[in-house]
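Ticket 4471: requesting a sanity check on a complex prediction with FE2/S2 (inorganic) cluster. Repro inputs:
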Amino acid sequence: MSVQTAKSPEQLRSYRWLGRNDLRSFGHRSRLRQFGYDRADWAGKPVIGIINTWSEINACHGHLRERAEDVKRGVYQAGGFPIELPAMSLAEPFVKPSTMLYRNFLAMECEELLRSHPIDGAVLMGGCDKTTPGLIMGAISMGIPAIYVPAGPMLRGNWRGHTLGSGSDAWKYWDEKRAGRLGDEEWNEIEGGISRSFGTCMVMGTAATMMAVAEALGLALPGASSIPAPDANHPRMCAAAGRRIVDMVWEDMTPAKILTPAAFDNAIRVHMALGGSTNAIIHVIAMARRAGIALDMQRFDAISRQVPVIANITPSGKYLMEDFFYAGGLRALMGQMTGLLDLSCRTVSGRTVGENLANAQVHLPDVIHSLKEPLYPEGATAVLTGNLAPRGCVMKPAAAEKRFLKHRGKALAFENYDEMARAVDRDDLDVTPDHVLVLKNGGPKGGPGMPEWGQLPIPKKLLKAGVRDMLRISDARMSGTSYGACILHVAPESFAGGPLALVQTGDEIEVDVAARSIRLHVGDEELSRRRAIWKSPPPRYPRGYGAMFSQHIGQADEGCDFDFLQGRAPIPEPEIY
Ligand code: FES
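Returned structure tokens:
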């Protein structure tokens, strides 16, 4: 064996299930032999759990059933024994009311799948938005060696010679259709052309951001996150991950040895250089806190001021992930910013970040810019605070019309999504382009699950007049593929009695992104009067998972983890009776 071993076969976790000479182990072994395996298949070898989020309703992961076979090929090559364990798929387009309601569910499932089975190391297969943080949060808490295999982005969309980007172009052409400039036939063609291969959304949305963040943290093989799902490099990467996890078990290379504060700073810097999704802030905070690192939103703001956006990818730029891959992918981007990264951080490759970036090159300089000629001089995300969001809220200035970066306007406030949806198409709606649209009850408890309602629709009468952006404020999230002057994640949320709950139509709201401030211009006396008559809404769920969610979910600034999943208190290994 070429790797440095920190363990003997008897010290493998799986030995307790499979190696002993007792009746229980007999039972476990006989059940493996029921599959047609023999002792030579597992004896003395690391058992690798492949947590696979493949599902027939998640086309982002449509290839992961086959790719699990490539992972197994690698595991066998390196002398391990693979066992595939299916997990919840969290298909972003289908899961209602929001996949965010289930991210922590997947995290629990991943952690407990690994804990309850004879698993020595884990390969985490996902990519569709919440699957990446869900799998990683679970693996961090479980604490055994783990490697993340990103599903990879789908190919570019195509319609009548136009390139189409997931989400971003759907919103754009939907607005054209609502404004009467696009017919049913064209709309139908776009529906058939926007998603034309397996793989995740191919803009710099939450999926692409989180896959890149996972790689920048050191949890995926170098370059893995940029490979398009259908590319032959993808199965090769899967096999390499299978080989590597076996060595990681022998080396005892656990997430705790990789996930340091410096690794999280690296990941946030990469997130900013990519112009990444605002959703990543919640997920990165949650992952860091699982790793025992007290990360908060202010860290994102501080790093955002130091790191320019250099990836020219939709929605902040004009290219798509396929172009990013041809330009050199994440290694090339990180290679442009070595002066901003801690190159000594360890990664699952067994090498440091600096070693992983050796010879990284940019092949298409208009897709990956240099720090000297960035797309935007400052980073992707601004964290604002003020009397409307005492614990903060976030905005993506690069995706907003410049005039909204300093703006004061009258609020048009909606108590909930349904009220807003009914109002925005009314021709007699009393609204101007300078109004500030406010949506309440879209937060972690109020949504519930913080749905992606934060890109509030522009009222139809303004759309017809050519308005394409307005200042919008909510405690909801926004799809990473969205754009516009949207202020999100207001904490604390309105459902829990945050100041957003007290906003009324006609109130003046002022936002100053340069000063990082958001202010509701209503006197303290009036706010106290409104608070005295404000009533806490009834719980959304009378029973079940939703009721548990509402009781235990944290606010956006805390990463929206469950209170009972946080912390690093050791959980005993299961008894084997
Ligand atoms: Fe799966 Fe966007 S829908 S990544």
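Notes from triage: Residues 158-193 form one domain. Leaving this open until the requester confirms.
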